[in-house]
Amino acid sequence: MSENPKIRFGIIGCANIARKVARAINLAPNSTLYVIASRSMEKAHKFAAHNGLSETVKIYGSYDQVLDDPCVDAVYMPLPTTLHLHWAVLSAHKKKHLLLEKPVALDVAQLDHILEACESNGVQFITGTMWLHHPRTAKLKDLISDSKLFGPINYIHSSSTGPGTKEFLENNIRVKPDLDALGALGDLGWYCIEAALWAKDNQLPTTVTALPDVTKNSAGVILSFTASIQWEPLDHTVATIHCSFLSNTSMDLSISASNGTMRCNDYIIPYAENSALFEFTSGAKFAELHIGWSVSPEEVRVISQLPQEALMVQELSRLAEGIREFGYRPDRKWPDISRNTQLVLDAVKKSIDLGCKPVSL
């Protein structure tokens, strides 16, 4: 398969995150950046110049031109969430594999339209959550899946926060109801919900409840929230998530089980690009007189040959190659992860709208 042409990507929209993914597309061994597009040629040319893109990269002044280009195999779409439904469905109908930035939709009904379009047109769908593709994530899953070393999971906590500046809180698209109406719930909550589901092998919870600490701006967009997620009575796992545009930067994930604990302080974006750490403790007890612990946390370091965003692009390209070369069907793993994440996100929003009442799934 390595002798076959690389998957050619088009980028629709020159958002800031597109700079990172443009680099990732060129770092991945099985993809290449073919075209970028903005709503104006001027903005697209500025993006290309600012990011030192090759002169061979085509530049378009409309999104339709990318979708109509027969040489484009896949599209990365970092548009505001309110635009996803239209452009993602159109991309699928144009037979373009889709890397869609999160949050992928305003609700699960919209996402179902997108996923149906991808499925019926035989194109692969992946959400742009990069941390799932880091080799550290696979190592974490191996350890927490060890029933003897770790045991059944009791508690999960995840946070994703950042100190929004005055400029951000007034003008960023994430605080504008006509662009990204879900605010911190969509932008940050997607990670935390996805992490809790990942720890539970994508098993949907039974109950979701927002806590009464919700902060909204004057337009009604969520700036900060906390929620609990329960899998009871099916099992006894509880998760808490906290997301905010009003706090210091945090990307914490901790998982506690009957015999082990795992902690990761940078699970969304690792502190370093080529390696990442986490702490793992198994069988810890207090020493005699409770003056210490029987074991210290083990620090586990995982090396990554490529940045996690390049590994994400590589995965989509690998799946696209399989569809192109061997007629494979699109992999359902990634759409299923996104749909369950959206279902829980919708439940958190419903709980907030109901005055923080429990919502059953």
UniProtKB/TrEMBL annotation:
Residue span(s) of domain GFO/IDH/MocA-like oxidoreductase: 139-262
Gene Ontology MF, one: nucleotide binding
Pfam families: GFO_IDH_MocA, GFO_IDH_MocA_C3
Domain Gfo/Idh/MocA-like oxidoreductase N-terminal: 7-128
UniProt cross-references to InterPro entries, sorted A to Z: Gfo/Idh/MocA-like_OxRdtase_N (IPR000683), GFO_IDH_MocA-like_dom (IPR055170), NAD(P)-bd_dom_sf (IPR036291)
Entry similarity comment: Belongs to the Gfo/Idh/MocA family.
Official protein name in the record: Gfo/Idh/MocA-like oxidoreductase N-terminal domain-containing protein
Organism: Rubus argutus (Southern blackberry)
Lineage: Eukaryota, Viridiplantae, Streptophyta, Embryophyta, Tracheophyta
